[in-house]
User: Fold this.
Amino acid sequence: MQSPTAAGAAVIDTGKADTFPRLLLHHAAARPAHPAIREKDLGIWQTWNWGQVAEEVRRIACGLAAQGFRRGQHLAIIGQNRPRLYWSMVAAQALGGIPVPLYEDAVAAELVYVLQDAEIEFAVVEDQEQVDKLLEILPQCPKLKHICFDDPRGLRHYAQPELMSLAILRSLGAEFAERNPEYFLDEIAAGSTEDIAAMFYTSGTTGHPKGVVHTHAALIHAGRSGAEMEGLTPDEEVLAYLPIAWIGQNIFSYTQGYVVGFCVSCPESPDTVTADMREIGPTYYFAPPRVLEGLLTQVTIRMEDAGWLKRRMFGYFMEVARRVGARLLDGREPVAFMERLRYRIGDLLVYGPLRNVLGMSRVRVAYTAGEAIGPDLFVFYRSIGVNLKQLYGSTETAVFACVQPDGEVRADTVGPPVKGVELRITDAGEILIRSPGLFREYFRNPEATAEARDAEGWFHTGDAGYLDAGGHLRIIDRAKDVGKLADGTLFAPKYIENKLKFFPYIKEAVAFGDGRERVCAFVNIDMEAVGNWAERRNLPYAGYADLAQQAPVYDLIRECVERVNRDLAADPVLCNAQIHRFLILHKELDADDEELTRTRKVRRRFIGQRYQPLVEAMFDGAPQCYIESEVRFEDGRSGRISATLRIADAAIAAPDAARKAA
Assistant:
């Protein structure tokens, strides 16, 4: 039988490596022994090269075909980043099928809508946890007939006819391939670059998630645009640690992995990501602001626990880094010899060890996106020598819409449009995008498609922003979220929330003020950072709810709020949008309670409705308010928690004084 590697030469000679299966064959022919993917299991890294991946994909694809999977069908993929889940995605594409990755932390009830909407008959999942969720909702999803699992632990005595291990599926695939030696390659040859490559469901911030349909051409164009801009090579190292259901993870670890041919590494677990990152030493890295905030929080806690001399040294050299680090990284502005020398010493004593602790010693290009990043957080990473840049995009644009080029990196923009992307700002300030990387449609939702993508092909992003004099895009907020206070002052809640979340003690924030006379906010404390702070002050507490309501913690958060107010006071547009009152919620906002999306975006409207008594109490001037709310526990049970929450006032900074201080 002809091997996939041998066939790959014929595919690439035609110049049509324009689908993911054809790209796979191309790499299997061009660099069969080059590492393609790694996985850490039981502390040991296992590596597969491109030739081995092609063979694994052939077996899974033929196994799916033997079970009746056909062109145009959807294949649900549920689990953490695992090689066999990635192989199942390209195996489905090889047969003309459409992988639909879903969030592994979604509760069973959340999966029902997507499985019904996409008419899922086949699913490939990681382990017992995902199997249990699908078996629980099987009566509501009668079309689901085939569930293949990767990790067999805990599943020995499961006898449901829908279940099959991937090991058995691979064996069936090998037998099917022996009987049908040309089937795999014929199916790949029958595919087109305009075929649907994948479907990603939106986070559902305001309602049911929508299935975003992308073609091979759109995804490959987006991945190639970013790769060409950054000069990516097959020698890059990438760590795949974010949810596979999120298109950003797909673009960076799947799409660009196939476009460029670099190696993708899957960490052992979410708890070992930082340690695994240090071992792999990625050269190309992506992290949403919440991850970068978490890493900085760990650094802050470690330094607070350090001795006096270390703290002084860290503070001194970080001040040097803030002055010259970004300038040295950009290479645009001259830096005095003594400043260069101080930075070099700081690199030996502080910045280099710090990058190593963060696992960023070899990072050549790092991106952040998904949410606006606080300027101080952004400057911190660039000042210690990490080439962190902002990009802008969405599920519908296949991520790459605007990217900051090297030498033009600023904290207040997301860069100019990338090659092939057109951008327009409407009179109302909404950002419109047109590019070859745009989605084809929302699955079975022509009304939403027509609303989002007009007759001229412009995608209405729903984001508000403008282009500055240098052609860089500045994002203000979601257009629907931007409002005005009663006096006409611009109210951009996400901008305010992001400024609060820069502080290591604040994990989440929700700002309210549209149509009101002032701004008030909910705050979630960061349990690790505030807990460490409390322990160093011998402040006892029984748990999150107890710690959150203690007077010293309110004083700590008040300091953070008032610092944000001083920053806002220096902004001539937002100086009147300072935070007058705040409270610390008695529970952490949770995706399982529908307060956050699975991508950790705040569902502001839902939170406002759910905690309406708290919102009104803040604006009415009440000193406290009783609240009772329903929560969902990890085991699926529901319960109710109640608390009387304190509401605190924050000092408002005078705009003129703030400007003079600045």
